[in-house]
Amino acid sequence: MGAPKKTPEVSGGSMADISFLMLIFFLMVSTMDKEEGISRRLPVMPPPDMKVEDQKVNRRNIIQVKVNAQDRLFAGNEIMDITQLKNKIKEFMTNPQNDPNLPDKEMTFIEGYGDCLVSKGVISLQNDRGTSYSKYIEVQNELIRAINELRDEWSMANYGRKYSRLNDEQQAIVRKAVPQSISEAEPKDVTKRRR
Amino acid sequence: MSKFVKKGSGDTPSISTASLPDIIFMILMFFMVSVSMRQTDRKVTVSLPGASEIAKLERKDLASYIYIGTPTLQYQSLYGTESQIQLNDTFRSIEDIRDFIAAERESISEADRQWMTVSIKADENTRMGIITDVKQELRRCSALRIMYGARKVSAY
Asked: CB contact, 8 Å: A83 with chain B?
């Protein structure tokens, strides 16, 4: 017997193959899809024994956006294309000429900012059971886009920066000054069925 | 002769592959942290509609998913080609949503329950009828935070 036996070295050549196998396993079992979408809050369901009372919303403060089963769009009092919707909503929410047919503005005190004119406009979105989901999302998207642009404009005018670049308190102020009041009405058929 | 005569043949030296495992491991680590595990098998085909104003889901662990779409080919003989609702791993009906939401709510810690979000992943060709029913049922279960799954497209 001579010198003590050396333990043989473990070959590292197959390490690459092993890790390749693991890599492929992970690729198979995992998903890459990001969780993104349009975030909304549903209205609270009224208890069944409560009578549905009409909320006293002035006629001028509400804009009806309807999508029928043929995916046609109706907003305000006219049939329109989806590309026109955003500007219609922006005009409705800002009411630049103080038109008596467009929504009222109310002087509201916002903490951290002061008094500010806030539109009382409400967007009411109605759809038919036959409306396609893609159209519905498209309309929702346009409504949110209109509000987001208004928020950007408001924060540009007041803070000189876009909404997304403001800090949390400022964002909260902007959210109060330009509320996102989209109501999803109780479901009912917009178009009469003819069968 | 001089000391610096090159020995051996003039072949190009082979590239050392000793760092290859490390490189692969690095890719592996990247994938492990960046992806989420697939939790359920999709039994319905869902191609999400496009939208430009999308927000990210902040807490993935608080989300429950409702898939709505036409069954995939292998299930069409059983369930037909009408839009179906998939909860967890099975086809379910509107009435089952209540139990599903209750179970999901139970699995979330009490402090986080108010942040529970229901992500509705519906195919873009679905009719709104079934989605309205789902929404009404969610309102009845007071699961009010919802998210319409969409993929990002740039605005025109």
From this structure: yes
Q: Which of A102, A125, A115 lies closest to A38 in space, CA to CA?
A: A125
pLDDT in tens, chain A (195 residues): 556 777 887 777 787 788 888 888 888 777 666 678 888 888 887 776 666 555 566 778 888 888 888 888 888 888 888 888 888 888 888 888 877 778 878 888 887 777 888 888 888 888 888 888 899 998 999 999 999 999 999 899 888 888 888 888 888 888 888 888 888 766 665 455 444
B65, closest residue in chain A (CA to CA)? A35
* Of the candidates B87, B90, B89, B91, the residue with the CA atom closest to the CA atom of residue B102: B87
Would you say A118 and A176 are in contact if contact means Cβ atoms under 8 Å apart? Answer: yes
Alpha carbon distances (Å) from A136 to A128, A179, B127: 10, 21, 9
- Whether B47 has its CB under 8 Å from any CB of chain A: the answer is no
Mutate to test the interface with B, among A129, A134, A139, A148 (most CBs of B within 10 A): A134
Residue from B14, B22, B54 whose CB has the most chain A CBs within 10 Å, to mutate: B54
Yes or no, beta carbons of A19 and B147 under 8 Å apart: no
Give the DSSP H or E segment for A110. Answer: strand A105-110
CA distance to partner chain A, nearest, from residue B4 (Å)? 33
> What does DSSP say about strands A78-80 and A73-75: parallel, antiparallel, or unpaired?
antiparallel
**Is the pTM for the entire model greater than 0.80?**
no
Q: How far is A163 from chain B (nearest CA, A)?
A: 14
Q: Are strands A62-67 and A73-75 parallel, antiparallel or unpaired?
A: antiparallel
ipTM over 0.85: no
